[in-house]
């Protein structure tokens, strides 16, 4: 369920993309330094959004530096890191670990079981630091697994559980912004879960795997219904975002919320149309 919360690079200024990339690279470096190569493999753009969001909201001090890496081996590139970089790394480890276990239980992917074993030590470290969040994420993923096992037809139930997971991750502090951050995370989480289901629909039909869109997938107006549902999720998420007093990084964050998250959707739609026209 990773890879949906991305920027639309074509609609960004070079300066904005460079700033975004520096936070992403800082996130990558943080994962490597604190969790080694096995942690670095969990890197995704999704948590970079959370880093930028929390950095802009709390206006925390951010350190700037430069480093070389496998992706940039010949010259140093800028990186930015702060307390939320480390927080995002921790949450990324939790999500990746539990997601591997879930994939093993659902589809018996042996390599996911093996990777979860490699991440077990790191997961334990994070769970010790954030016991409530770790317990909440584990409990909700267990509930999602139950819904998937019983092939629950109400798409709000399973997607709502993943929404609660993201709400817990977004609520980094118990303060006046917690409610809006939870609201934002909840609907973004539902969007991610349903977007993942939309992309996997044809594959799940063939393999007889659970998919919340299956009950309506044969409707003549399915595409319109799916788009409407996804749009409602992002509308609620964006509404909560606009309530937050964020000045820094707003153009990047809006690029992601209003444009970037739809890039994968458009790609999937084009792929479906190409298959139909073949």
Key terms:
278 residues; mainly alpha; two-stranded antiparallel sheet; 10 helices; 71% helix; 4% strand
Describe the model.
The protein has 278 residues and is mainly α. It has helices at residues 14-40, 46-58, 83-107, 110-129, 131-149, 155-170, 178-207, 222-243, 250-258, 263-277; strands at 63-67, 77-81. It has a domain at 130-243. Strands 1-2 form a two-stranded antiparallel sheet. α1 (14-40) packs across α2 (46-58), α3 runs parallel beside α5 and α4 (110-129) runs antiparallel to α5 (131-149). The longest helix has 30 residues, at 178-207. The mean pLDDT is 88.
Strand proportion, as a percent range, falls in under 5%
- Global mean pLDDT: 88
Radius of gyration: 19 Å
Biggest β-sheet: strands ordered side by side in the sheet: 1-2
Per the principal axes of the C-alpha atoms, what is the gross shape? globular
Brief description of this entry?
The protein is mostly helical and 278 residues long. Helices cover 71% and strands 4% of the residues.
Topology:
Blueprint: H1 14-40, H2 46-58, E1 63-67, E2 77-81, H3 83-107, H4 110-129, H5 131-149, H6 155-170, H7 178-207, H8 222-243, H9 250-258, H10 263-277
Helix pairs in contact: 1-2, 1-3, 2-3, 2-9, 3-4, 3-5, 4-5, 5-6, 6-7, 7-8
């Amino acid at each position: 369920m990773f890879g949906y919360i991305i920027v639309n690079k074509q609609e960004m200024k070079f300066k904005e993309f460079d700033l975004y990339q520096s936070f992403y690279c800082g996130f990558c470096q943080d994962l490597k330094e604190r969790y080694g190569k096995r942690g670095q493999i969990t890197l995704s753009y999704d948590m970079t959004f959370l880093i930028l969001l929390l950095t802009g909201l709390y206006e925390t001090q951010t350190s700037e530096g430069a480093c070389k890496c496998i992706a940039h081996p010949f010259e140093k590139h800028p990186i930015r890191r702060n307390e939320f970089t480390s927080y995002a790394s921790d949450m990324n480890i939790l999500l990746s670990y539990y997601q591997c276990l879930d994939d093993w239980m659902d589809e018996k992917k042996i390599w996911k079981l093996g990777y979860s074993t490699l991440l077990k030590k790191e997961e334990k470290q994070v769970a010790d630091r954030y016991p409530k969040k770790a317990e909440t994420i584990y409990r909700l993923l267990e509930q999602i697994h139950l819904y998937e096992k019983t092939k629950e037809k109400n798409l709000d139930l399973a997607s709502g559980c993943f929404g609660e997971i993201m709400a817990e991750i977004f609520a980094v502090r118990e303060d006046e912004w917690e409610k809006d951050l939870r609201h934002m995370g909840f609907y973004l989480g539902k969007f991610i879960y349903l977007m993942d289901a939309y992309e996997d629909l044809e594959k799940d039909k063939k393999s007889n795997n659970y998919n919340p869109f299956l009950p309506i997938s044969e409707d003549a107006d399915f595409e319109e219904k799916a788009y409407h549902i996804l749009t409602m999720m992002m509308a609620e998420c964006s509404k909560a975002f606009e309530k937050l007093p964020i000045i820094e990084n707003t153009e990047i964050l809006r690029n992601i919320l209003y444009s970037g998250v739809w890039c994968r959707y458009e790609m999937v739609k084009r792929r479906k149309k190409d298959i139909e026209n073949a």
